[in-house]
């Protein structure tokens, strides 16, 4: 009897020890990936790059983390080394995975956001690592992280993004010679994009060369261009051109508080994490909701950021190819000298403004198609594919008077935005740009369609890297 009791006590102690270890490892799993994701999003908010640059930065960061993690997984293969770095079973501990991906992320983010290096080093320290640590063993997790990060960065430094300024003097600047048809003061061709004069500066098309960037899974930026409807043209389809402009006038003239909140919540303008980062925050919600391990988080963020990265390339290919006018240009052109209803009362059509903050009335790039819509549909579709369900269940409460367009006035009382499904969240993101007067209906709907196609193609490739055959 005494032996039996002793065995039970020993077994109980072992189980308690395992539970404590499991809880400790779970805590590590819940924080490592998302903490580096948070670091990336904060660097984006601090440095304010354009949307496609944000999408690329997040994809590269999570690819480095994935490749470092893959060395400690039984099936996954890295994007640069395949399975050549795979470590034996005894080394596949959570601690080694976390250490490898942390150093990979730190090196990657320092390359992408060099001015934020100190914050990345501080995060390493907070996770218990020494940033300057240089172990000699090639198989040490630190060296695994450094090796994969160097390989991924070397590949992406020459992907057509011009990150290093080797194709044109300024990093990420255009090397294709884009020049706008219109000027801030003259609409020469109402079918084409017009840079605006904002805060005393003339807008410049952000990364017009982005359609040439090497994608993750797409064959090229123009792969799905042929599946889109031709955008409305004043020259060839004037009736449709006028109808879409009138539709935006009607949307913006009859905004409820809820629609105004939707327009502003999804705007994701400067100083935010921008639309690609917004869907990373949604992925973090899913991670917490579904109690992800580190393994699941690495795969989730790798899949969603690369899908959204490809969406940026497809979207900017269309923006450059069609070079379409924004609603503000079309409405100014069509309704100059006419009184029109707007969200801020009756105004001359030449003075109409979108429902946006005055310092950022419309983004500095052409309309067709919608970046918000393609980013959101690609993100939503990836989350649906990853979780196996469209269920989302997320919400946000916007406090009364929160508006930056009408501060202290809108909304008159608290407003809750609730998204039962990923699809409904993506649809609301697309509609927000109509409420805000930023996009036309075709630019929204066509981009939603392309975003889903991009996500499905990217998902097939991600599954191969996960080591899953379908």
From TrEMBL:
Residues 61-195 form the DUF6851 domain. The keyword Transmembrane does not apply. Residues 1-29 form the signal peptide. InterPro entries: Br/Cl_peroxidase_C (IPR016119), DUF6851 (IPR049283), NapH1-like_2nd (IPR055161), PAP2/HPO_sf (IPR036938), V-haloperoxidase (IPR052559). One of its GO terms (molecular function) is peroxidase activity. Gene3D superfamilies: Phosphatidic acid phosphatase type 2/haloperoxidase, Vanadium-containing Chloroperoxidase, domain 2. It holds the Pfam family VCPO_2nd. Keywords: Signal. Residues 300-446 form the Vanadium-dependent haloperoxidase NapH1-like second helical-bundle domain. This is Uncharacterized protein.
């Amino acid at each position: 009897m005494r032996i039996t009791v002793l065995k039970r006590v020993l077994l109980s102690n072992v189980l308690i020890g395992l539970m404590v270890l499991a809880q400790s490892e779970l805590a590590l799993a819940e924080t490592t990936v998302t903490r580096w994701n948070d670091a990336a999003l904060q660097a984006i908010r601090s440095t304010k790059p354009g949307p496609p640059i944000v999408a690329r930065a997040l994809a590269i960061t999570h690819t480095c983390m994935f490749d470092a993690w893959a060395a400690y997984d039984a099936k996954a293969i890295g994007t640069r080394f395949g399975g050549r770095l795979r470590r034996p079973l005894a080394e596949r501990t959570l601690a080694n995975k976390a250490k490898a991906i942390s150093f990979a992320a730190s090196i990657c983010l320092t390359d992408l956001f060099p001015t934020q290096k100190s914050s990345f080093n501080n995060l390493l320290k907070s996770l218990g690592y020494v940033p300057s640590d240089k172990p000699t063993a090639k198989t040490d997790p630190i060296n695994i992280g450094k090796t994969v990060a160097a390989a991924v960065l070397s590949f992406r430094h020459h992907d057509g993004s011009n990150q290093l300024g080797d194709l044109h003097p300024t990093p990420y600047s255009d090397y294709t010679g884009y020049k706008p048809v219109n000027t801030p003061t003259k609409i020469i061709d109402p079918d084409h994009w017009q840079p605006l004069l904002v805060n005393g500066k003339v807008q410049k098309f952000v990364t017009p060369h982005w359609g040439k960037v090497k994608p993750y899974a797409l064959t090229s930026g123009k792969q799905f261009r042929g599946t889109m409807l031709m955008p409305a043209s004043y020259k060839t389809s004037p009736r449709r051109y006028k109808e879409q402009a009138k539709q935006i006038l009607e949307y913006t003239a009859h905004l409820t508080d809820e629609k105004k909140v939707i327009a502003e919540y999804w705007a994701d303008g400067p100083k935010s994490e921008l639309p690609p980062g917004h869907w990373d925050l949604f992925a973090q919600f899913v991670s917490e909701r579904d109690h992800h391990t580190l393994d699941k988080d690495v795969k989730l963020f790798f899949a969603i950021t690369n899908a959204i990265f490809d969406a940026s390339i497809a979207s900017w290919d269309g923006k450059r190819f069609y070079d379409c006018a924004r609603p503000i240009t079309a409405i100014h052109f069509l309704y100059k000298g006419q009184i029109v209803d707007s969200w801020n009362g009756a105004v001359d059509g030449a003075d109409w403004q979108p429902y946006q903050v005055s310092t950022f009335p419309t983004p500095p790039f052409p309309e067709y198609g919608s970046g918000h819509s393609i980013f959101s549909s690609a993100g939503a579709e990836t989350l649906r594919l990853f979780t196996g369900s469209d269920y989302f269940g997320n919400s946000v409460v916007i406090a009364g008077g929160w508006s930056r367009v009408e501060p202290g006035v809108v909304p008159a009382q608290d407003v809750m935005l609730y998204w039962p499904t990923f699809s409904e969240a993506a649809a609301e993101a697309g509609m927000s740009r109509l409420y805000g007067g930023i996009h036309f209906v075709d630019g929204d709907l066509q981009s939603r369609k392309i975003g889903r196609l991009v996500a499905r193609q990217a998902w097939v490739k991600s599954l191969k890297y996960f080591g899953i055959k379908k």
